[in-house]
Specification:
about 525 residues; mainly alpha; 23 helices; about 0% strand; DUF6377; membrane; DUF6377 domain-containing protein; transmembrane helix; TPR-like_helical_dom_sf
């Protein structure tokens, strides 16, 4: 009896509750969400418990023990799988008949009728209980009889086709509930739970909460019985418009159902409705979908029919929301595509502009390079000019001084009218060969000062075996002087011949021989010489 009283009385109260969750409720909803994610593991755990009872039933040889085990299986299946619960209720009746224990048989029939009632077979359930004579029942069986009648009429109330029938069934259930409270065999904790619906019916919510609170605290958190009491507490708090506590206890009851593998989870169905009313359609859809799936798997006809209408309503709202979301996403995607197209066009334009800028930069870089080259050449030329201006100023000053001295001496000798002295003076004073040697030596120094690596750079343009090495005490050779002049920009052979006091043919020969000895293209030899030192 104790196994059936609390689970079956969960159907006694159906109350609406709007949702306004505080932090504690939000935390509980997250726990419930996590529990639903792991629902499969809790279902497997429940199935293992049932399988272990089946093994004990097969191994048992005592008929009375078999009745107890079948009753336990019936209880375990009552909120898990109604068809199996009905099957074991039938087994329990058969074992009870074999035991020849009349009281045991009546108890089995009462359990059988409650299972039929929970599956929607009200007439069949009442047909069993109406045959029983109350005065012939023991006090314990009389309490179970009253409990069974309360259960059946509450089920019928939920399926009443009109308000009159609903009220009539509710009145009959209340009469049997009052009779149940008169039974001394009902435990105190169960009595408190049974009294709660009567108090709620008379809107004595605080009294109901008072007696339920003490019972709730006596059970372990999220245990099956704690979940059932939490359901009644939620209903009481809803009655007094304490919405936070109402949603809190409905969530606790739903968590208890999931953790204990119960598929007959009325709390989850009501919670889905309340959350839907609060505007959280996604969560409401998830909860109602789970409740609907469990009702189908449990084959709970009452829960399935009740949940189906609400499920269709929530599903429609969910689909409307998804449709609205799809429209918004479509609009956003369209806008995104337009932005992408605009960005692509902008990218193309920027790429073209970048190409133009790169071309301009490349052109500027080329011109800058040319300017730098020109500046380098100008700087080189300026350096050459500075060197040569200094060289020739010094050279000319020296020659002017010599000429002035020569003039003074010549005039002095000429005054003596001694022609022999004049002739001797002219021969001894005018030594042009020494002057040329000095001039070429100064020229060599100026070239090597301007281009310290001139000899090495020049030989690098020749084949290794044709390298020109100046002799001891010499700075440049005649060939090197010719091409030093070319490096200075003097390319005319006539001017070179005059400068070096060579014949024109000698200059041509030197230039031709050097081109033949060049390492590389002969036609580019003198151009390369002109770039030495750059």
């Amino acid at each position: 009896m104790k196994r059936f009283i609390l689970p079956l009385l969960i159907v006694l109260i159906f109350i609406s509750l709007p949702v306004k969750a505080n932090d504690e409720v939000k935390t509980l909803l997250k726990v419930l969400d996590k529990s639903l994610q792991n629902k499969a593991s809790y279902t497997k755990q429940k199935q293992r418990q049932i399988d272990s009872l089946k093994i004990v039933l097969r191994q048992s040889g005592n008929i009375r023990k078999k009745v107890g085990i079948a009753q336990s299986l019936c209880f375990e299946y009552s909120s898990f799988q109604k068809d199996s619960a009905l099957a074991y209720a039938i087994h329990m009746n058969r074992f009870a008949q074999e035991s020849n224990d009349k009281e045991l048989l009546i108890e089995a029939k009462l359990d059988y009728s409650r299972i039929l009632s929970s599956m929607g077979f009200f007439k069949e359930a009442l047909a069993i209980t109406n045959l029983m004579q109350q005065e012939q029942l023991s006090p314990r069986l009389k309490a179970e009889f009253f409990l069974g009648q309360v259960t059946i009429y509450n089920h019928q109330k939920a399926f009443a086709s009109n308000e009159h029938d609903s009220q009539e069934n509710d009145l009959i259930a209340q009469i049997y509930r009052d009779s149940l409270l008169q039974c001394k065999e009902v435990p105190s904790n169960v009595r408190a739970f049974i009294a709660a619906p009567t108090l709620l019916f008379h809107k004595k919510y605080d009294d109901a909460i008072h007696i339920l609170d003490s019972v709730y605290e006596s059970y372990a958190p999220y245990s099956r019985n704690a979940g059932i009491i939490a359901y009644s507490l939620a209903s009481a708090y809803q009655g007094k418009n304490d919405r936070e506590n109402a949603i809190k206890y409905f969530a606790i009851s739903a968590i208890s159902d999931v953790l204990n593998g119960a598929r007959e989870n009325l709390s989850l169905k009501i919670l889905a409705k309340l959350i839907f009313e609060s505007g959280d359609i996604d969560r409401a859809y998830k909860y109602m979908k789970n409740a609907m799936e469990d009702a189908i798997l449990c084959n709970a006809r009452i829960n399935t029919i009740e949940a189906s209408d609400m499920y269709l309503f929530i599903d429609k709202a969910f689909q409307e929301k998804e449709k609205h979301k799809f429209i918004i996403i479509t609009i956003l995607l369209t806008a995104l595509c337009l932005v992408c197209i605009l960005l692509f066009i902008l990218f193309i334009q920027l790429k073209k502009q970048k190409g133009k800028v790169e071309q301009t930069n490349e052109s500027l870089s080329h011109h800058l390079y040319e300017i730098q080259q020109m500046n380098s050449i100008l700087a080189d030329n300026n350096k050459i000019k500075e060197e040569y201006v200094g060289l020739y100023m010094e050279q000319y000053t020296s020659y002017i001084t010599k000429i002035a001295n020569f003039k003074k001496r010549a005039l002095k000798i000429a005054k003596s009218e001694d022609i022999n002295k004049v002739t001797s003076f002219l021969h001894s004073s005018l030594n042009t060969e020494e002057d040329l040697v000095e001039f070429y030596n100064n020229f060599d120094k100026a070239i090597l000062n301007l281009f310290p690596n001139f000899v090495e750079d020049f030989n690098a343009l020749l084949l290794p075996e044709n390298a020109i090495i100046p002799g001891p005490g010499k700075l440049l050779t005649p060939e090197l002087r010719i091409f030093a002049l070319i490096r200075l920009g003097i390319t005319d052979s006539v001017k070179i011949a005059h400068f070096l006091q060579y014949s024109l043919s000698t200059i041509y020969n030197y230039r031709s021989k050097m081109r033949i000895k060049a390492n590389g293209d002969r036609n580019e030899f003198e151009e390369k010489v002109a770039r030495i030192g750059q």
